[in-house]
Amino acid sequence: MLDVSGIVKRFGATTALDGVDFSVRAGEVHALVGENGAGKSTLMNVLSGAIRPDAGTMNLGGRPYTPESALDARRSGITLIHQELSLAPHLTVSENILLGAEVAQWGWIDRTASLRRSVALLERLEHTDLDPDARVGDLSLPAQQVVEICRALAADTRIVLMDEPTSRFQREDVERLFRLVRNLASRGIAVVYISHFLEEVREIADRYTVLRDGRTVDTGTLSATTDERIVAQMVGREMARLFPERPVRTLGDVVLSVTDLSAPPGLARASFELRRGEILGIAGLVGSGRTELVRALFGLGGVTSGEILVGGKPVDARRGKPAARLRQGLGYVSEDRKGEGLALPLSVADNLTATHLAAFSRRGGWLDLDAQRDGTRRWMDALSIRARSPDDAVRTLSGGNQQKVAIGRLLHQDAEVLLLDEPSRGIDIGSKAQVYEIISRCAEKGKAVLVVSSYLPELFELCDRIAVMNRGRLSPARPVAEWTPESVLEAAISTEAASA
User: Do 450 and 417 touch, CB atoms closer than 8 A?
Assistant: First the structure.
């Protein structure tokens, strides 16, 4: 259905695509994998008409394909569904589905016919549960994704491009999306699926293509290859393990003690202790109160009751602010890296050193910029942050390198307690391995680490103990050996656990 050959795209001195070959067949799910910065998103933008290639050829259905714009690509039957959905939240489900493809007569929108068309499209995807008159902004993220896919169908799409569609989904939502993808494929629609989760790729895709440094380095049938080969092609070398070996750590004193902490409505009650050298994992469904717990600990939530001790000393749980928590030795990495975890227009140096500029201040309060750059370069080397210089805007970095900057800020700050909310979300396998190694090293050096994660292998391989959040209530923390994935899930959804 689609065949591209020798695609090249340059942005100034940077070559984003350097001779990509790629093809997708009708009715197949084709996985496109690679590290952050490999060129996946640039290729998707070329295919969807958002940018034009500098060289190479594209054929769609056997004919030359040279889209002038995203609208032109959409009319040709290619639709891109971004990781961050591009819907109009103030409009209804029906209005979003038919946006740009409205049913009209004499220049007026035929609302009755539009409603019928929207209902028919929802029925095609077996989602008659969605109210076409509901406001999109009031829907859950999975429901919004259904609307986005229906919108693609309304444009008579032949190829759907999906960029990290499950990065913020729970397992049940992933399964629901997979049913939609299989539905599309059964109708002869081709799906190009970008994901960092190889287990997802194996579950949903037929074939795969690996990009590395803007080039196609491998392609084939998933049933005929191994994860090890795919990972080796992605990173350009053999990778023995994703997770570091778990050392035998001697845990130190309790550095963070929390008793009956409450921050309604998200956090009902949480109690736990965290020791030096320990990695404590918090599991639970999205919306269970995990993020509210971490934010409350860092002074970002409306705590109404409870007690927090840092290093054995009580701190103000109800009126504590982030500035006070920084002074008390706490550091926080938000799950929303781009929205609040980093100042994207600012440099790597400014982001990495923001919480401890005093390290580079001189008499009179002036900031020594040369010293700041030198200090940032040392952290860039230590954390393998790939950027041309400390002065680069952090928005120009890949997701994995951005995440290492966010974690590096806590290390530069010399935080004793690291609060990490979804530390590996949206980053590639090579970067995940590096982030996991950083977290493990922090624990070995006596830091206390709290990890909130939706990815159970991450919790089981990294953490010493796990606690589960259920409807705002935190279970007792138990050693990893006492949990199984099934028991964690049961604790996360059980009504009895929530009322305990």
Answer: yes
Handedness of CA 87, 88, 90, 95 (dihedral sign): negative
Q: Residue 289 is which amino acid?
A: G
H runs (alpha helix) in 105-170: 111-124, 141-154
| pLDDT tens digits for range 319-349 | 889 999 999 999 999 988 888 889 999 999 9
Query: Which letter does DSSP use for residue 276 in this model?
Result: T
Strand order across the beta sheet in which 190-194 lies: 78-81, 159-163, 190-194, 29-33, 207-212, 215-221
The pLDDT tens digits of the residues spanning 55-96 come to 999 999 989 999 999 889 988 989 888 766 678 889 898 888
Q: What is the pLDDT of residues 473-498, one digit of tens each?
A: 999 999 999 999 888 878 887 655 54
First to last CA, the chain: 55
Site of tokens 């293509």: 209
Residue 106 to residue 116: CA distance in whole angstroms: 19
Interatomic CA distance for residues 25 and 319, integer angstroms: 58
∠ CA 140-143-149, rounded to 5°? 145
Structural domains in the chain, sorted by start: 2-235 (3.40.50.300), 254-499 (3.40.50.300)
pLDDT for the residue numbered 495: 57
- CA-closest candidate to residue 191, choices 182, 200, 199, 202: 182
CA atoms within 13 A on the CB side of 325: 23
Q: The dihedral of CA 312, 308, 284, 329: what is its sign?
A: negative
Q: Is 284 left (phi over 0), alpha (psi -120 to 50) or beta?
A: left
CA 86 to mean position of chain CA atoms = 17
Closest to 475 (Cα-Cα) out of 458, 500, 450, 454: 500
Are the C-beta atoms of 458 and 425 separated by less than 8 Å?
no
DSSP-based three-state secondary structure for 382: helix
Task: Give DSSP secondary structure letters for 112-124.
Answer: HHHHHHHHHHHHH
Cβ atoms 457, 436 nearer than 8 A: no
